[in-house]
Design a protein that fits this description.
CATH topology of the largest domain: Rossmann fold
Helix content: 25-40%
Strand content: 15-25%
Oligomer: single chain
Strand order of the largest sheet: 6-7-8-3-9-10
Largest sheet: 6 strands, mixed
Distance between the termini: 19 Å
Length: 255
């Protein structure tokens, strides 16, 4: 039972308002290691606000965020990264002109050992390329053969794979994916879904935000339903059909 485990990332009573608009109204959420927690909801349900509060992009007005059983305060995204939480936003935030390895280490560049790194501040490009290739291989990504090729030469699915690989390489506890298959075709979507399953197999907690209900029901272990800024319930693909989940999401049924 998941209730006997400590969530890798959790929140209690999250509240976030924007003037008179209520983004979150007392939301609880639990994500566990080695599982995929999907977050679904209609437009304006508070999905993005919830994710941003959990990852330091927004500061909640009230409530508590808990990482590995300890209360934490995220004032900025870097605070969440320091806690082992990586986020892949829908916009990807990759640098098209840079190669795959440089994108994986963007903002985390490693210097060469010894005086070359400490005094002359030379980057360890060879080492970063080697470790980037290992990260891509560990996730089973076979569509990217050349770590040195610029990201702008990759397909949409390959770019998404680069973003996921970067999150997996540095997200030691939790990876948050915001609409990872939104702009992809069937084949590339399936590749990304396979990556999500690989993250779960590697023991990471995965939070998946998606409008694509078939994808959610394919990979999710549990499904957190957001409605009008509140949690409408937590269901599973085994306990509820896709139609029943959508009914809860739209208010036509209760969880």
């Amino acid at each position: 039972m998941t209730t006997t485990r400590t969530p890798v990332l959790a929140a209690r009573g999250l509240v976030k308002t924007f003037g008179r608009v209520v983004g979150l109204d007392g939301v609880d959420v639990d994500a566990y290691a080695g599982e995929v927690l999907a977050v679904i909801g209609d437009n304006g349900a508070g999905k993005s606000t919830l994710i941003k509060c959990l990852t330091g992009a927004l500061i909640p007005d009230a409530g508590t965020i808990i990482a590995d059983g300890a209360e934490v305060t995220f004032r900025r995204p870097q605070d969440a990264r320091d806690a082992g939480i990586e986020t892949v936003y829908q916009t990807l935030a990759v640098a098209p002109a840079l190669d795959v390895a440089s994108n994986l280490y963007l903002g985390r560049e490693e210097r060469r050992p010894g005086l070359l790194g400490s005094v002359f501040r030379m980057l360890d490009k060879q080492g970063m390329r080697r470790r980037a290739a290992e990260a891509v291989r560990d996730l089973g990504i076979t569509t990217i053969q050349n770590i040195a090729q610029p990201v702008e030469s990759l397909s949409g699915g390959q770019r998404q794979a680069v973003a996921v690989a970067r999150a997996a390489a540095f997200g030691s506890r939790t990876v948050v994916l915001d609409e990872p298959t939104a702009a992809l075709g069937v084949k590339e979507s399936n590749q990304v879904l396979a990556l999500i399953e690989r993250l779960r197999e590697n023991g990471l907690g995965v939070i998946l935000v998606s409008h694509n209900m078939p994808h959610v029901w394919q990979v999710a272990d549990r499904i957190h339903v957001q409605r009008l800024g509140r949690s409408a319930g937590v269901i599973t693909p085994q306990s509820h059909t896709m139609a029943e989940g959508v009914a809860i999401m739209t208010g036509a049924a209760a969880a």
